[in-house]
Design a protein that fits this description.
With about 400 residues, this protein is of the alpha/beta class. The chain has helices spanning about 15-25, 30-40, 45-55, 60-75, 90-105, 120-130, 140-160, 175-190, 205-220, 225-235, 240-250, 255-270, 285-295, 310-325, 330-360, 370-385, and strands spanning about 1-5, 25-30, 80-85, 110-115, 165-170, 195-200, 220-225, 275-280, 305-310, 360-365.
Length: about 400
């Protein structure tokens, strides 16, 4: 999980960069002000308690704030991580956040501070005031805000410098260059974590070939379920004998068997940069199982691809493939193929929709040549993870 705290003085462009980080990296935005207002609007017990304090002119305690933050994180576990804005504001809150992250089996990945000299901040905000007409964008108020920012954040910054996760970005650059600097930091942070990819597509769409090519190019462990099952059969293991019985009866291999194979491989693959999953998950149940397995390894899905084509195009590709390699068996393969296509449309499409809501599935035109499809996949990967180039 990628958790980022974004700091920056007034006028540094923190809002613009926050929007970029949230959109590109599927981070859930946590602003203490926003989540307090949401709790108050929902009339929750914590919200009502906070409202009572605020209406009397008091400051909401850290105890209430941390409970709301914990609740927000737990309610948005589908996010790839969280972006903290306005928290931690104090040295004490930095310790609070550290303890909360430990409780949730995660940690703050990086504190990114957009650095800007005071005069530059003042100039930017004064100009903004002229355009917007905001009464608080005058030099006297601005300098007070900047002084307050420096006084409060220096101890927090020192806290994270000691932990080696402080990253400074030159905020005087052009917006695009600031974004690029932040992207470089994010790429390095992502590279520290396992890079996990799922590739979807109709039977015969070439998923196995693309999964193999991706695993070789990026150093990922290839979790090709079909290949893993066949290996167990070839080795005549006890699990392989059970799998063989499923195959002979033209039955779908049970989730229990699939999970056992994946779990064993996750445990053994210590040197891989991550994993690419093909043929699993095929159902919503399996998708929740995979999410849980990865979470146990303090990881999550990084990218999801779908080889986009119509069912007719997929059937043609499937038949051409089996005619070419001489593996077509009309008695068995037709019934088997129909079953697999039906399963994809009835079950796997729901999984793709789920992941699209969570992460944003990358659609790739699967009817193109192998090289064209593979190049598009690589471009998508390297646009988010440039260190993999």
């Amino acid at each position: 999980m990628l958790n980022i705290a974004l700091f920056g003085p007034p006028g540094a462009g923190k809002g613009t960069q926050s929007e970029y980080l949230i959109s590109k990296y599927n981070l859930y935005y946590i602003s203490t002000g926003d989540i307090l207002r949401k709790e108050i609007a929902k009339r929750t017990p914590l919200g009502l308690e906070a409202e009572k304090i605020m209406s009397s002119g008091g400051l909401v305690s850290d105890e209430i704030i941390v409970q709301i933050i914990e609740k927000t994180i737990k309610n948005n576990s589908q996010a790839s991580g969280f972006l903290f804005d306005g928290f931690p504001r104090t040295y004490v809150q930095a310790y609070i956040l550290e303890g909360l992250m430990l409780k949730l089996n995660t940690a703050l990945s990086s504190l990114i501070s957009i650095e800007l000299k005071e005069e530059e901040s003042v100039n930017r905000l004064v100009q903004r005031g002229k355009i917007s007409g905001r009464s608080d964008d005058n030099e006297s108020v601005i300098r007070k805000r900047l002084n307050e920012y420096r006084t409060k954040t220096i101890p927090v910054i020192d806290f994270y410098k000691e932990r080696g996760i402080f990253q400074a970005v030159d905020g005087s650059q052009d917006i695009k260059d600031v974004k690029k600097s932040i992207s470089n930091i994010m790429s390095k942070e992502l590279h520290k974590e396992l890079f996990n990819v799922i590739i979807f597509g109709y039977p015969g769409s070439g998923r196995a070939s693309y999964a193999k090519a991706i695993s070789e190019k990026y150093g990922l462990e290839n979790m090709d379920m079909s290949k893993m099952l066949k290996t167990e059969i070839a080795n005549n293991t006890l699990l392989g004998q059970k799998i063989k019985a499923h195959y002979e009866n033209e039955e779908t291999v049970s989730d229990e068997i699939a999970v056992q194979l994946i779990e064993e491989k996750l445990e053994k693959s210590h040197n891989a940069n991550g994993f690419i999953f093909k043929g699993f998950p095929r159902t919503l149940v399996q998708s929740y199982i995979l999410d849980g397995l990865l979470k146990r390894h303090q990881s999550s899905i990084s990218m999801v691809f779908n080889l986009d084509m119509t069912a007719i195009e997929a059937i043609q590709m499937h038949d051409n493939k089996h005619i070419t390699d001489g593996s077509m068996n009309k008695d068995k393969s037709t019934a088997n193929t129909i079953r697999r296509f039906k399963e994809h449309e009835k079950k796997t499409l729901h999984v793709i929709n789920k992941y699209n809501e969570q992460y944003g599935v990358k659609k790739i035109d699967g009817t193109l040549s192998f090289d064209e499809v593979f190049n598009q996949i690589c471009l998508e990967i390297e646009s988010v993870f440039p260190d993999f180039e």
